[in-house]
Task: structure prediction
Amino acid sequence: MGMDTQKKIYASPNVPTPNRPVIFDPDICSGCNTCVEVCQMDVFVPNPEKGRPPIIVYPEECWYGGSCVAHCPHPGAIRLNHPLQQRVRWKRKETGEHFRV
Amino acid sequence: MRCYSYAEEGNWVEWPYPVDYDKEREVTVDVLVLGGGIAGCWAAISAAKRDLKVALVEKGATIRSGAGGSGCDHWLYTPNPLSSVTTEECVAAEFESNGGYTNSISRYIASRESYDTLLELEQMGGKIRDTEDKFKGAAFRDKQTKFLFTYDYENRLHFRVWGSTFKPALYSECKRLGVEIYDRTMATSLLTEGGKQGARVVGATALNVRTGEFIIFGAKATLDCLSRHQRNWIFSSEHRGLSSFRPGNIAGNGPAMAWRAGAELTMMEQAKRSPRGSPYHFPAPGTGNPFNTWFPCTMIDANGKEIPYVDRDGRILNSLSERTRPARGQKFMGERATAYNYRLNRIVPDLLERIEKGEFLLPLYADLPSMPEHERRAIWDLMVGEEGRSRIPVYQTYMESGFDPEKDLLQNYEFLRGGWVATYDVLPIHERITGESGDAGGIVVDWDLKTTLDGLYAAGDALFAANYHHHAAATGRYAGRKAAEYAKRAAEPVISRKQIKAEKTRVYAPVKRDNGIEWKELNIALCRVMQNYCTEPKNEELMKIGLAWLKDIEENEASRAYATNPHKLMRIIDVFDILTCNQIIIHASLTRKASSRFLDFKRIDYPEMDPPEWHNWITIKLDNGEAKSGEFPIDFAEPLRDNYDAHNKNYKSIWKQ
Result:
């Protein structure tokens, strides 16, 4: 297996956890920034590139209020992404199969 | 460029808002409302309806801010034409359940006026009835009014509502009435006459959390609708969000500002154990459980064996309809009521022992598929769909992941961290929170919801021993009209430039530094002090050391705190207020020289539980910079009806019991 010798490696710090409280679909998102204006915790700033999804500057401050998703005028542009250690499970009654968020 | 800006990406974007620290702006109004949550919006509407100039100051965005911004499932303790329960009985249910440690003034006001408040909310666009007939024929539905009820279907005291419609309706009404809304603006201090502690409140200072600008609000009357303190014992810097009950903007600015201005607070020594805000907890309506939002869902164990519900006498309830009826000889059931007279039906209380003996197999599940369709849809679509911070993160997110309430059993997490999480009995002792689930210490008020400072009124969870959405709404509406009445006859506010100058120095200090301590590290350090020196059991020596440590941190690390943009400035100022709240809590704890079961307060040096001479409220305030304590009796609100009537001769109710 070849390694990409062109790719640069950085002394990158650890990311804040959780680091992706919301996930954007850049193809659907219009960059209207409604989510930026409705977020209580002010975790976003508008993207300097117009028409692109906002930048999440303070992901660890997100309280998963969901107002960003609720007020987004473009369905599918933004969705919540729960922290991995807070994903609840359920069991299908008939089959006993386990699922989770 | 991708969507995430971390150090990893190596490219921080420039702060997108024009920053102008020190730039001043002056705004003069009749009524100033601090906090744009449920209480604040109702207060602003109430005052604006009386033709006054009103400003509303909100740290986030008023359309969805506060604990009730994203939704609400229940409108509780509301006497109405379909119920025979009286206002006095509503107050008694909470008084008896809390050993008297409940704000009977505000609870009386709330239960007296909450039906009026609900009807006004409907006029504004809030949805309170099953107008689409989706629950036609349900046992919890009234045919004529189309109201839906919860908990006790016989007494119809607690409503099921479409709370996600409420905040936007209130916001629209504020705008329609001409309320000046200042979003992204955090209040930082109360202004007092002559800048003196204990004098009349004449406005407040505030910061724009995006531009850093300083705003001076002058007002004839001011309202503290800033909710309660939190993050005093627990602060998880990175995993806080999903398990907290209130948004992180609620940081105790209210009690801290009131304290510095010289207002009296009470019950600040109370601190109940709670998992909320812990990284190991889940959002309450986001797990399968038999409580609150999910009541009266059937619970089963891992083998499918049903777990019985019992009434207050321990009698097993064999049918679903029995769960939602009071016991023999019981008049009505209250939400969260533990007193015998009003106790809600519940899952067998010795469930943990039965599990340990092997009668039931963990984990447990909520059996929505087995519920009759009306109940299943009421619990899932309506309650989980409408409760605060629930529609998107629980209802929608879980279904997008494939959860189907007709086929799936949502897992329950009781006992998986030891003991009943819901009753907080076996949580680690240091996991304490002051009222993140309700009923914390707060500001003292009288029958006008006026604080001990002239010109300052309060409503919602800013009030001592307060709780609930309907209570925030009704007390906000009430305090707004009281503040308006005062403003109509009060003198013009005169602001002290000296007080302004001192406050500007205080709030801008962090942005003048580019290194030191950041807000998260400071918050956790403050929590550590409380976890070691003001938890359980307490003693005088420990608490005095706690105060000394807080002073030490205040003079050293906190005075070297830094913030590199207005957002981080907002957060560090919040932490300064958390420090103040911690100081208040320890002062109050030192003053109570007895233990109390009701306050979850244990002193090893004064171990007697609730001795009669200490069965009272302890007050605390700053007087010339020194902490002074006082007290008032447990039954301070009596006689309830007479007091209310004396203070509300001109109130025209929409409905009267």
